[in-house]
Amino acid sequence: MNKQTLIASALAVLGLTACEKGLDAEGEFTSSTASQVTNSVLQVRTRGTSPSEEATVAYPVQVYVFQGDKCKAAQTIGDEGQTLNIPLTEGTYTVYAVAGASATDYTLPTKDNATATTALTLKEGRTLTDLMAAQATATLIDGGTNTVTLGLQRKTMFIEDVTIKKIPTAATAVSVTIAPLWKSLNVNGTYSIAGQSTTIALTKQSDNRTWTNDAAAFVMPPSSQPASVSVNITIGGTTKTYTYSTSDQLEAAYKINIDGTYAEAVGVNLTGTITGATWLGERTISFEFDENGSNVSGNNDNSDNIPSVGDTYQGCYVLAVLP
Q: Between 20 and 30 A from 143 (CA), which of 78, 239, 277, 299?
């Protein structure tokens, strides 16, 4: 073999070696070891977990793919017909999905800063949406495609209807507060920041005695049980709060209807029901509020001694307080 042939053979070997370089998931060149080349595909699909017609998926769906503690991909499924095809290296991955969280409503973690416990935080002035979550594990082999179908579960409660009846006509404001609740949902579907509350303002109706909510609302589930439901009634600058600790657990994926009645009698009672209807079933929770469990706040310094309009004093209903 002559000298030129030897040089050509050496260059060919070097060329083959150079061709055995590839781009990994981070966009960096790596050697040709099978576990480092992005020649495998993770295919991600989503579905609801309920067999009923309400087993819909709230779009968009934020998908996060982790290998160990490192987020390797963060992508969005925008609608029902979309399937993600994510190129990855060979290995085992954990896939998390959070549905119903758009970039318009939430501050979303990116691939560079996401961890499993990073919260999707609600933006200022935005309201909570129908959040769902799922996770799965997938093992990719060299050159293969692994399809993961994520069954999403609802992570919020739905306050559908709130009605408080027979409120004194002198009332200037009525609201309902539910506590303690979680504040945020994390990438991995767990909750963060306990002990929060949600207050739903009610609007006076044409009969001047009934107060209802203007719109339904999604809220986070309780961060501890039992949860409490409070009715706040403002009359003459004083707000009285009647609180009930629920005997049954309030849970995510339940529709909640609150129906209360203010009783104009000595030892004021406020009674009502919370009807929780899951997408899979239904249950009813009964409760009672009474004057012994109320808290008073407001600008009446002598409220402990002087009755206010709407109070019951010595067996009588107070219509007016004269100087």
A: 78
Residue type, 160: E
- Non-local CB neighbours of 129 within 8 Å, separated by 6+ positions: 58, 100, 101, 102, 105, 156, 218
Distance of CA 281 to the CA centre of its chain: 20
Residue 282: the pLDDT is 41
User: What is the 3 state secondary structure string of 174-238?
Assistant: EEEEEEEECCEEECCCCEECCCEEEEEEEEECCCCCCEEECCCEEECCECCCCCEEEEEEEECCE
3-state secondary structure of 289: strand
**Which amino acid belongs to residue 281?**
G
Q: Rounded distance, CA 272 to CA 224, Å?
A: 22
* pLDDT attached to residue 16: 32
Q: Determine which of 18-22, 89-93, 247-251, 254-258 has the lowest per-residue pLDDT on average.
A: 18-22
**Is residue 89 a contact partner of residue 24, using CB atoms and an 8 Å limit?**
yes
- Whose tokens are 């609608």? That residue is 79
pLDDT value of position 292? 52
Q: Is the separation of the CB atoms in 241 and 225 below 8 Å?
A: no
Cβ partners under 8 Å of residue 250, min gap 6: 157, 178, 221, 222, 225, 227, 256, 274, 276
Spatial CA neighbour of 219 closest among 237, 235, 198: 198
pLDDT for 47 equals 64
Residues 6+ apart with CB under 8 A from 259: 161, 162, 163, 165, 272, 273, 275
DSSP for 26-59, please give it: TS-EE-S-GGGS--EEEEEEEEES-SSTT----S
